[in-house]
Amino acid sequence: MSNIKNYTKSDLKLIHLLSSRGLDYEKSISIVNYEKELTHSNKNLTKIIKMFCTVTGITIEEFRENRDRKTQHIKHVFIYYCTKNTGLKHEDIAGFLDITRPNVFSACKSIQNDIDMKESLTMSVLKEVNKLAQNTNK
């Protein structure tokens, strides 16, 4: 059983609502916990997108909307970085970017190939993002 102090009033209302609609109490709690976890991971992913935008000089809107080759490549580097540094599942990253899980897998594989080949854009973006991440963690 979860500690009730970890839940907000709205969390408790949602748990009660779900329980009163036929879900058992433990299933209701797991749904609320999953939603809280997604909210937390989205905040982390938003911070990481801002770091990528700072390093690459593109805006968040361009990152999300633009489909040119360079922006797509940077998005793939972002996906790779998130899978290696956040511990999030492919499904969570895919949901955040509104893409499919196989696209996340493909992006990771593509960037890993670039790293193996020491492709300059990939290596420089990852180096700069890692440096910025270390500076913000201090």
The helix-and-strand class reads mainly alpha
Number of strands: 0
What percent of the residues sit in helical stretches (DSSP H or I)? over 70%
Rg estimate, integer Å? 18 Å
Quaternary form? single chain
- Indicate the low-confidence ranges by residue numbers: none
The major beta sheet can be summarized as: none
Indicate the proportion of strand residues: under 5%
* Average residue-wise pLDDT: 85
From the N-terminal CA to the C-terminal CA, the straight-line distance is 36 Å
Q: What is the count of DSSP helices, taking H or I runs of 4+ residues? A: 7
Global shape: elongated
Report on the architecture of this protein.
This protein has 138 residues and is mainly alpha-helical. Helices cover 79% and strands 0% of the residues. The chain has seven helices and no strands. The chain has helices spanning 9-20, 25-56, 60-65, 69-85, 90-97, 101-116, 120-137. Helix 1 (9-20) crosses helix 2, helix 2 crosses helix 7 and helix 5 packs across helix 6. The longest helix has 32 residues, at 25-56. The chain is elongated. It starts with 8 loop residues before the first helix and ends with a helix. The model has no long low-confidence stretch (mean pLDDT 85).
